[in-house]
Amino acid sequence: MMARMPTLDAATLLLVITVVDVFACGVWLLLGEVLRIAPRASRRLALHHGLLAIVWWPTVPPALEPLLGLPVTLICAGLLTAGVRGLMRLRHQLNDVVAVVLVGLAAHAVVYPDLTAARAISNVFAAVLALMAGADILRGAGFRRPVTLLLLMPYLVLAGAALWRASGLLGWVPAGLGLAGLTTNAPLALVRLVVNLSVTTGLIALVLQRLIARVRHLTRRDPLTGLLNRRAIEEHLQRLQSQVDRGRTHALVLLDVDHFKRINDELGHAGGDAALHHLAEVLGEALRTTDCFGRVGGEEFAVLMPDTDEAGALLVAERLRRLLQERPLTWVDKIWPMSASFGVAAMRLGDAHGKDAMARADAAMYAAKARGRNRVQRAPLQGEPA
Amino acid sequence: MMPATDPVSMIAALVAVFSVALVIWLLIAAGLRESSAACLCLAFANALQGGALLLLRTPEADPRWLDMGADLMLLGAFGLIRLAVPLMAERPVRWLPIAVLVLVVTGLLTRLPAGPGGVAHLMLLDGTMGLLCLLSARDTYRLLRARELRPGLAAMFGVPFLLVGLLLLARPLVATMSPSGAEALDLHSQFSIAWLWTALVLALALNGTLAFLLLMKLVLQIRRLTLRDPLTDALNRRALAEAMAREHHRVQRGHTYALVLLDMDRFKQLNDTLGHAAGDAALKALVALLQPCLREVDLLGRLGGEEFCALLPYTDIAGAALVAERMRHLLERSEFSWNGQSWPLSASFGITESVATDEDPADVLRRADEALYRAKAQGRNVVQAVEAADMDRRPPAGSGQGDPVPS
């Protein structure tokens, strides 16, 4: 296998791995302490790389391996798994990780001073911890499948190599097929370098993905109610309009809370906020998942209903109106009745960005206000008086 | 004792670093679709650097073509890195001069003898790469400073580029001084070994810096989105409330602060007459007009709708009155028009100052609200002040609200 490749030097590669670990330690410290991104997980990962760099530093005497090298490597593997879990935010408790590390340390103590057994134990537990980290990534990473599998690779390689080496040490594979240790096995050291680099950079890609998702959420959501904001609604409206132009039927409902100023004056600004929250919750429960529900202004909301004609939208709007009427707002110790006025419009062919549908729904909503509020009004057809 | 470094293993390690970086930048560009252009530039830059290293290591081929290929790849890599920094910030980039520079220099390099004794070749190649790096260092520093990062921190992230640049410039210098030392990368010379180590550390640092630029951009974007009102870019209500709470802590230590509460007049009519888009534009214009009236320590926030509040630290009611009057005057004199239709902008102002007996910022805000109410009742486009003593004499809340308020 090595015939055509130039011979590599394991000691040099090990030194490179150490330098990479020192660098990775710095990166995680910077992320956690300066940028305050996932500080706890970052600290664990920084400690993982920092300790590894110390253990693998070439001037550490080999005699320390059973006492210091192997146990610390095990703790490092545990720190990596704990760090990955912290970044994934799946669950907070680390009992299983701590338990695996403690059992591994106890096993080390039992077999001391048998170096071969200690190395086998270290590898078995490292494999278990790498697989645990991989499982967390598989469940927690919000990437598409192929990307997640790519991120998973280094952990699988790590676990596979560790198990191979352990079985060799335990004499389970025929002599000659076992895997030599990093210090004498240059190809393995090169693989380990790639794995270490991939683990750190992959986790940083994960952090980036979290931040990007947060930015996208913040730019599309109304912070008060958690509904879509006006920009997101306009984007959806534009998308639906292009579908209408291709022959589909969509409708749009605009609604405005009745006497919102009075709520604000009587219950205060916090009460007004609670009223908007209440409305978002009550109406949100009644809508389909395909409907786009958003807050388009102060106390004005919009619902985009795909694949719904005007009659259907009128029925839904009427149901929403009744629902809101039936479920008054409870604020501190007051029960405050709420209602809204609804304007319904079907989207039409050839309407630029759906602006006309929005204007017609707005006009219908004002007509509903003018006719005494708490009612649903259909947008007038062309030429028909409002 | 540190073990002796094997140059071949070092080159293998460098290629491994470039390969992983290539995959990760591609993943960010394609998988996350974030700053795709910049990430693709970096992916290719890493691929080119790794390729150049491998080419230099390939024996038995026409060395002339090999050298040209490696030169072109290296120059291309640094050209791409030079492009990536402004692309990361979504700034316009001028790729044409860089492409021309890379091609012209490569063309010139084919005329200069490479290999042993090719000091001129080395000088031109490394000199160009070093220059590109120094320019990237400058870009990084300016970019981070423009994002209001502290100068020290901004400089720290320019340093990797600076070091790579200086390192590249150092190679031809060393070659001039001792012509036998620096020609081939896999010579066991002290300089070659040191150069390879530095190249490794700086390859890590360069990729790390660019990843940091990307992270920084996202973090600042998130901070902006959580603290600012997206329409007007004034602080949002939560951020202003937090700032007021911080300021209020200092009241006990004798520092007063003042609030200027303002509400745009006839905003509903504006919306109804000219449309919601006009209303939004008017709010933006209002903030743009008012911001210059404030000092750097003052904060302007949007409380909701057409209501804004300016927080003025270390200011008493007289100072706040001056600020508010200036704002009122500026707004009154401003010209706002929408689709050719002009609309007079004005606002009503309520001002107050904090006193030691205020338990929390809400007490101060309530007085400012009362003052604003009086201003509105007086016929708008006026400034009204309410002091803590006035509030004590005020009839209980709710009953006196219809009365015209003498001033």
Strand segment tally of chain A: 7
Global structural class of chain A: alpha+beta
* Proportion of residues in β-strands of chain A: 5-15%
> Tell me about the biggest sheet of chain A?
5 strands, mixed
Residue runs with pLDDT of under 50 for 5 or more positions of chain B: 181-187, 395-407
Helix/strand/pairing category of chain B: alpha+beta
Number of DSSP helices of chain A? Answer: 11
Helix content of chain A: 55-70%
Which descriptor suits the 3D outline of chain A?
Answer: elongated
User: Which protein chains are joined by the largest interface, and how many residues does each one contribute?
Assistant: A-B, 48 and 49 residues
Question: What is the helix/strand order of chain A?
Answer: HHHHHHHHEHEEHEEEHE
Which stretches of chain A of 5+ consecutive residues score pLDDT under 50? none
Overall number of strands of chain B: 7
Amount of beta strand of chain B: 5-15%
The backbone outline of chain B, from C-alpha atoms, is elongated
- Terminus-to-terminus distance of chain A: 84 Å
Biggest β-sheet description of chain B:
5 strands, mixed
Rounded to an integer in angstroms, the radius of gyration calculated over CA atoms of chain B is 31 Å
Mean pLDDT of chain A: 88
Strand order of the largest sheet of chain A: 2-3-1-6-7
Helix count of chain B equals: 13
What does this structure look like?
The complex is a heterodimer of chains A (386) and B (407). Chain A has helices at residues 10-34, 39-56, 65-88, 95-111, 115-140, 145-169, 186-220, 230-245, 260-286, 310-326, 355-370; strands spanning 251-257, 292-295, 300-305, 329-331, 334-336, 340-346, 376-378. Chain A has 386 residues and is of the alpha+beta class. A 5-stranded mixed β-sheet of chain A has the order 2-3-1-6-7, with helices on both faces. Chain A has a two-stranded antiparallel sheet with strand order 4-5. In chain A, helix 1 packs antiparallel against helix 2 and helix 1 runs parallel beside helix 7 (186-220). Chain A is elongated, with a radius of gyration of 31 Å. Chain B has helices at 7-32, 36-57, 63-88, 95-111, 119-146, 151-177, 190-227, 237-249, 267-274, 276-290, 317-333, 361-377, 388-393; strands spanning 257-264, 299-304, 307-313, 336-338, 341-343, 347-353, 383-385. The longest helix of chain B is centred in the middle third of the chain and has 38 residues, at 190-227. The model of chain B is unreliable at 181-187 and 395-407 (pLDDT under 50).
